[in-house]
Design a protein that fits this description.
CATH architecture of the domain at 54-192: 3-Layer(aba) Sandwich
Shape: globular
Oligomer: single chain
Strand order of the largest sheet: 9-8-5-3-4-10-11-22
Radius of gyration: 24 Å
CATH topology of the domain at 54-192: Rossmann fold
């Protein structure tokens, strides 16, 4: 067993299987079912290569699995996938599943430092990369890194410029190996449903990334949850603009499509007008986005050109604070669409809204627990606290991850004795079970002994028409410990002063201790790949600025 792996209590394992969340199947089982039922249905479509049917996807995944097996990839090996939103991502993930290898997804934006960290943390045997992408030479990067990574034997290159001792994806796919009924089953290497099959590293908004381990059963539970809550089926077309190198792209894109037999439409890079065109052209029915993406869509003039996207029935939006004004605008500009604010993390998905959710709850909360999931609010000691009180959100359910890779200390610290995960998110829950995320435990600003949640203040101030985005962070203060600094991105041509913010805060009735005491205007906020504000980066920025100011004073 991998170090850091946690055991699910037997009674919960039984419950999750009886409820249909743990299906005891791996992703290639679902792929083969799709090939039998709908071989000519489009499985994946990307802007670079066009469409691939389920029959073609199966043949290519099998062919690649045979080639990788010949190259030395074995059951239990870690293999990094670092490629853009191309259909080959699905091919590689499925091929690795056939071999019982463990997929490790990383964003294509990672460079030497991050890739080296992930490769060393996993002991990866291989990595898949593009040869060149967005003016960056990945082949050169891996040439530099290879000598520092003792376990890395295989570099699989998509493109025409693989270097010496690297494998060409095109060569493997066009080679003479035969795909036959006798070798396509991969019976000896096929993973068990409870084996770790996927690792993704947390985005690191508060520190060093952690390797989140998932099994086929925990990932199937995430997909089954969407099926139960939203009726996702083979009739759906999933639009995925989020990077496949992140958990949201793989879980709700690559895997959900194969799990249900739906079509996956990939957007290579975020461009709002192109996203609207793709959704309209391919008649996409659902998508999962972060708030900035939703804002870009609903404020685009192009939306009217496409009749407000009548095919789009569901937008699940999470990953960061979703303001009530954004939800209201999305409802107005996408009248055919269910807008579902929700909450989740790489470790598991937690809450959502649906067609039965009251409008007031959609606009002011992050929904309530997904089917099969349990949520509660706990004190620092881990005790459940009353409705309405703020505390740490804790979660338990069939979709929970299997532990932090090689970090049993972190795994043990994250779980309560009853199997609930301490999520690190501050939240409140009302008597109807609706959750409102109020911040991160580590993001609290402690001003003169008073704990201040940045999200609470951001929610109030973000409604001003001059502000595009706002984030609060603590800045060091000799007397109070911390004071509040507001970092703001303004709309084009807008002006804002600290006095304006104070006036907004006063009119809202916000206690004066929570008013911003300094304003910094930025062109953009530092974000994680999943769209979360990197508050530690903001703290570092203002600390350095204050230090420089004290030197020149």
């Amino acid at each position: 067993m991998l170090k850091g792996r946690r055991e699910t209590p037997p009674h919960l394992e039984t419950q999750y299987r009886q409820q249909g969340f743990w299906t005891d199947k791996v992703l290639t089982d679902y792929l083969e079912a799709c090939i039998v039922k709908q071989p000519e249905r489009v499985a994946v479509l990307d802007e670079r290569s066009g469409s691939v049917t389920y029959s073609e996807l199966g043949e290519r995944a099998t062919r690649l699995a045979l080639g990788l097996h010949e190259a030395g990839v074995s059951k239990g090996d870690f293999f990094i996938i670092q490629i853009p939103n191309w259909y080959e991502f699905s091919v590689i993930h499925l091929a690795l599943t056939y071999l019982g290898a463990i997929s490790v997804s990383v964003p294509v934006t990672f460079r030497h430092h991050e890739v080296q960290f992930v490769a060393r943390a996993t002991g990866a045997k291989g990595i898949a990369i593009p040869d060149d992408y967005q003016d960056f030479n990945f082949v050169e990067m891996m040439g530099d890194l290879r000598g520092r990574l003792a376990n890395l034997e295989i570099v699989l290159v998509i493109g025409e410029h693989a270097a010496t001792r690297m494998l060409s994806y095109q060569d493997l796919m066009s080679g003479p190996r035969m795909v036959t009924d006798s070798n396509k089953g991969f019976g000896a290497t096929k993973p068990r449903p409870d084996d770790v099959t996927f690792v993704v590293f947390t985005s690191g908004s508060t520190g060093e990334p952690k390797g989140v381990m998932h099994t086929s059963n925990t990932l199937a539970a995430i997909n089954a949850t969407y099926v139960k809550e939203y009726g996702v089926s083979s009739d759906d077309v999933i639009f995925m603009p989020a990077p496949l190198g992140l958990s949201v792209g793989l879980m709700h894109g690559v895997r959900l499509a194969v799990f249900t037999g739906a079509t996956l439409v990939l957007q290579e890079r975020w461009e709002p007008e192109k996203s609207i065109h793709l959704i309209s052209q391919e008649r996409a029915t659902l998508t999962v986005v972060v708030p900035t993406m939703l804002q870009d869509i609903v404020t685009s003039p192009k939306l009217l050109d496409h009749e407000s996207l009548p095919s789009l029935r569901l937008v699940w939006v999470g990953g960061a604070f979703v303001s009530p004004s954004l939800v209201q605008r999305a409802h107005a500009n996408l009248p055919h669409t269910l807008i579902s604010p929700g909450w989740g993390m790489s470790e598991g998905i937690g809450s959502c809204c649906n067609d039965d959710t009251p409008v007031s709850k959609v606009q002011t909360t992050d929904g309530r627990a997904f089917p099969g999931t349990e949520l509660k609010i706990v004190s620092p000691e881990g005790e459940e606290i009353p409705f309405g009180d703020e505390g740490e959100l804790a979660m338990r359910g069939p979709q929970l991850f299997a532990g932090y890779l090689h970090r049993p200390d972190l795994t043990d610290a994250a779980f309560l004795s009853d199997g609930f995960l301490r999520t690190g998110d501050l939240a409140q829950m009302d008597s109807d079970g609706y959750v409102k995320i109020t911040g991160r435990v580590k993001d609290l600003i402690i001003r003169g002994g008073l704990n201040i949640s940045p999200v609470e203040v951001e929610e109030i101030l973000s409604g001003d028409s001059r502000i595009t985005t706002i984030a609060l962070a603590g800045m060091p203060d000799e007397r109070l410990g911390e004071r509040i600094c507001a970092f703001v991105v303004l709309k084009s041509g807008a002006e804002l002063t600290l006095e304006d913010l104070a006036d907004l805060a006063e009119k809202s009735g916000l206690a004066k201790q929570k008013w911003p005491e300094r304003l910094e205007i930025l062109t953009e906020l530092p974000m994680t790949p999943t769209g979360k504000v990197q508050r530690y980066a903001l703290k570092q920025l203002i600390t350095e600025k204050l230090t420089e100011e004290s030197r020149t004073a």
